[in-house]
Design brief:
Largest interface: A-C, 25 and 26 residues
Mean pLDDT of chain A: 95
Strand content of chain A: 25-35%
Order of helices and strands of chain A: EEEEEEEEEEEHHEEHEEEEHH
Strand order of the largest sheet of chain A: 11-17-16-15-14-13-12
Structural class of chain A: alpha+beta
Oligomer: homotrimer
Chain lengths: 342, 342, 342
Amino acid sequence: MAFVENAWYVAGWSRDFSQELVTRTIVDQDIVLFRKSSSEIVALADCCPHRLLPLSKGKRVGDTVQCGYHGMTFDGTGQCVRVPGQDNLPSNAKVRTFAVVEQNGIVWVWMGDKTQADPTTIFSLPQFADPNWHAHFGDALKIDAYYLNVAENLVDPAHVSFVHPTTLGNAASEDVPVEVSTDGDVITAWRWIRNAPPVGFFQQFGNFSGHVDRWHYYHLHLPSTAVIDFGSANSADSIREQDRDSGVRIFAIHFVTPVDSDRTIDYWMHVRNTATNDDSASELMDTLLRKAFHEDVEILEAIHRSEKRSTHRQQVRIAIDKGPNAYRKRINDLLQVEATAA
Amino acid sequence: MAFVENAWYVAGWSRDFSQELVTRTIVDQDIVLFRKSSSEIVALADCCPHRLLPLSKGKRVGDTVQCGYHGMTFDGTGQCVRVPGQDNLPSNAKVRTFAVVEQNGIVWVWMGDKTQADPTTIFSLPQFADPNWHAHFGDALKIDAYYLNVAENLVDPAHVSFVHPTTLGNAASEDVPVEVSTDGDVITAWRWIRNAPPVGFFQQFGNFSGHVDRWHYYHLHLPSTAVIDFGSANSADSIREQDRDSGVRIFAIHFVTPVDSDRTIDYWMHVRNTATNDDSASELMDTLLRKAFHEDVEILEAIHRSEKRSTHRQQVRIAIDKGPNAYRKRINDLLQVEATAA
Amino acid sequence: MAFVENAWYVAGWSRDFSQELVTRTIVDQDIVLFRKSSSEIVALADCCPHRLLPLSKGKRVGDTVQCGYHGMTFDGTGQCVRVPGQDNLPSNAKVRTFAVVEQNGIVWVWMGDKTQADPTTIFSLPQFADPNWHAHFGDALKIDAYYLNVAENLVDPAHVSFVHPTTLGNAASEDVPVEVSTDGDVITAWRWIRNAPPVGFFQQFGNFSGHVDRWHYYHLHLPSTAVIDFGSANSADSIREQDRDSGVRIFAIHFVTPVDSDRTIDYWMHVRNTATNDDSASELMDTLLRKAFHEDVEILEAIHRSEKRSTHRQQVRIAIDKGPNAYRKRINDLLQVEATAA
């Protein structure tokens, strides 16, 4: 399986990183990360070039990392600065490093050609900086599935009625068609379910007494960051698309990080315009989202096992595939560009 | 590994199937089975043609099954009857179905070309319908081995002295030669051990005070149903072959269902002419047979691991291989026929 | 992965073998061993030539082993002496046997061409027979790594400072260069760390009050027996190389037996010139060595996993590789000789 390498992927939340050595596997490459004394995070290939021991089996010494086998030591630029038992340093004694950016409490790593790493292209959301909104970091959800299937699921509102019938969806939306559009590197699939009972989630959160208008906007930013804008408002208010802030509105954000061909980590968080000072609301929302996301995991892992047994990925195409298909086509274009450059 | 596909294989006992979705893997194909409201059992390929999710991850809705990802729904003929979010049904939206026959409390599935599925060829035994006999259903025994080795073991009376020395055999039979004959699709290997102490099994069941004449007839019906007719009678009675009903006579029946190249399920039951109204006798017999069959499992799984490490299956041929070799030759003929037709 | 087959490998200690059937896998070949009534140990390929069942699933009968499937029986020379149910013995009914030598409480097996098996080449140590020394048998340490990496680690004193900083080494030795020499089939790497605090091991064993001179001599006998001569003496005594017996001196011996490409067993023991009549000293030493050797296991298994992910084994060569590189070259020469002969 190929991966888009020239991209920023999330390696975790800021709180996950300290002066301890932390390991990650992203696009099938093992890296080790740690904070220098300046608190800057550095990322090195997790492999000593001498005998291939993961550097994470060694230890941090000041702003360097020392291999646990023979003590070869590398600084944050990947340069070898010490070989015990000899004075000269072999010219090829260096390890690859990766660009790291920490922003809004999120740690991003660029896994491809470092010269193309542009921090200004990193995903952000205006609401991160808006005091009327509250951002809350969730879990690192491990999924035994190929990441493109995980990401496709996040530009596919139609699955909600069947995978999450008691949490995020219900039967009222089963046959509501899905709209799809593309704007630059963002593919959006959305639909409104007007004048229906609130789903489980908004029964708990919205305090609605009657029918609601519910929306789902799935924005999938290439290569694999999804922002799911969903919410509900009293149907009596007949709100317009652009007035979603007047309802209960939540952005569930999924940073989908490919581990390898068979594994993915979904770092998820949410941003909300309700109960912004209420920690117990954050916990309740985590609990509800965790339950829903595990419903996705069961489906995605079953599909992964099934694809590995089968010779073709998909046999029948239906209307609701429009978002996923647009996404897959864009990814293939990116892979093509990288393959040509290599 | 190739499998004979044009054959009826046992998928379980009638009692194993209800309106719940039940899964099986037979000849390396995943199927999902359920009873319709008419109680008829249907079997579909366990794979939605849209995104390959196993249909068993969805749910039964009336006499149809609804996929758990996007709600595509299929009836018992495999035809798609609903695609949520669109009115038209894609012409290629169908799943393969398999012929199912329920007979004598046993559920059979035909895994190959459906036009060749002839229910009149399904294995039966006159004693199933005879009030002087009692049929009792046993377990689904999982064996991590290739099914042909499991079946060969069931046309091989010679192994009994060594694999089952305290249960079904004893030292008295070690050197008694085995007779083999073939009649249509049935290969039979048998021997009589005359005038010897009863083996463990018939010490418990026959209430014999002196020596017995013991017989073992292994009838292997192609492709993989084995009927082991074994019993004992007082040696003083000097019974003839055709008078076996006058002794304590048991048919241990093994329906050997190939799961995949490395796994087999042996659905086993027995039919007996003794203690026909005695449930505790059924339980005791299950206990004894279970113990003996686990002795087989240990040997068969060790051989399977050994064959996977080795480059040849068999190095030395000996006299008692006659039954197994005749069986393997007939199976190879069947595989040849199917390969030629395909 | 290729293995040197024309070599004596340790299969265990004498105490591990009785009339019970014992199995081992050495250079990816399965063998079964047992003592005959004469107490001589025989080793046969653990595979019946009839249906490939491991003979170890059968039982010993006198000085023969009887297969657990159909009772074919083989003597200690590998010759078939019985086929139940028939009088003649097939001419190809034999199993391969392996030369076994028991010496100094250690059981050796020759895995290659039996005609080249020369017992006089088996490793020994004069101290085994010296009453001033005590030999104590340790454990069979299982390591999920390729055996050449395990052996290389045993001609590499430089790793001690980093892998065993609190047990066998300490920071004082980090930059002390390593000397390497070759004498016939023995490659030796060594160094002295003069006038330094005793390491953890000799704090417990030497009862030293001040600084010590510490030595590490790693003698690696082809293909994979390592004798690590290490010890300490009061620095005030300024002992010479040849006077090591006057200090506290220990031979830690590792018999590195390749299981397969991914697994190795290190049978380890030690011989010492201190506390020779003290069983509690043996136990304490086992405890200390066990802790240190598990530090090696963690490193070696991590390297093994890393090598399997990588396309090259080593990228950078440094000074302390001299011993390991000399060893690897000699092993490659041996493999070349065997490949040419085959």
